[in-house]
Amino acid sequence: MVFKKIAAVAVLGCSLSFAALADIQESAGDRLNSLLGAFDSFSADFDQVSGRDDSRRMESSRGTLLLAKPNRFRWIAKEPFPQTLISDGETLWIYDPDLEQATERKVTENDSGVPALILNGQIEQLKSQYKIRLLQEKSNSQLFELLPLQETEVFTRIRLLFTDGLISELQMEDSLGQRTSIMFQNQKLNPEYEDTTFTFSPPEGTDVIVESSPEPAN
């Protein structure tokens, strides 16, 4: 009888723990949703650094991001190699001016990688793929961590730092040990854009490649 009571208490304790964890998860998701839902458009300068744990070689780039929900963006890498990615939500262009080459492809669900889900504030889809935790909170900053619910996800860990309500850093680690950190500066919420901001016309003389079956992007 005593054993049964102990077992019952243990089961109840586990149930309460799971319920508490679910509440914490929901609370963190709601908090992240509130921060990501504070804007319909966004602009920032960025510094991106990528590398592997087993390599001393790091790749870096610098540029500007313009974004408007849903799924419209203009990612302009200026250094060290210029490249522009532009999407109007239906067509994605990748333009390499040094190569005088542009790639055109239709946007599909496979193009909705995790960074796009985050910046577009698609919190429900993020919840279906990742466990969201609020790791740290100070007076003016919040650090979130996203861990995959399934081993099949490309990213094994994602961290998202907000400072004064603005996205200041996005860190991603994939299953191959590649780590990418994107640091944002000069962020602006809800800037107004011209209709042509997210459209692209290849300059004269550009070699245009049309992809009919895009590879999955994450």
Task: Describe the SSE topology.
Layout: H1 2-36, E1 41-52, E2 59-68, E3 72-79, E4 83-87, E5 91-96, E6 101-106, H2 114-119, H3 123-129, E7 130-137, E8 141-148, E9 155-163, E10 166-174, E11 178-189, E12 207-211
Parallel strand pairs: 6-12
Antiparallel strand pairs: 1-2, 1-11, 2-3, 3-4, 4-5, 5-6, 7-8, 8-9, 9-10, 10-11
Helix vs. strand class:
alpha+beta
Give the full name of the CATH homologous superfamily: Lipoprotein localisation LolA/LolB/LppX
Oligomer: single chain
The general outline is: globular
The whole-number mean of residue pLDDT values reads: 84
Radius of gyration from CA coordinates: 21 Å
Task: Tell me the domain tally.
Answer: 1
Helix content: 10-25%
* Strand adjacency order, main sheet: 7-8-9-10-11-1-2-3-4-5-6-12
Q: Biggest β-sheet, characterized? A: 12 strands, mixed
Query: What is the CATH architecture descriptor?
Result: Clam
**Strand composition percent:** 35-45%
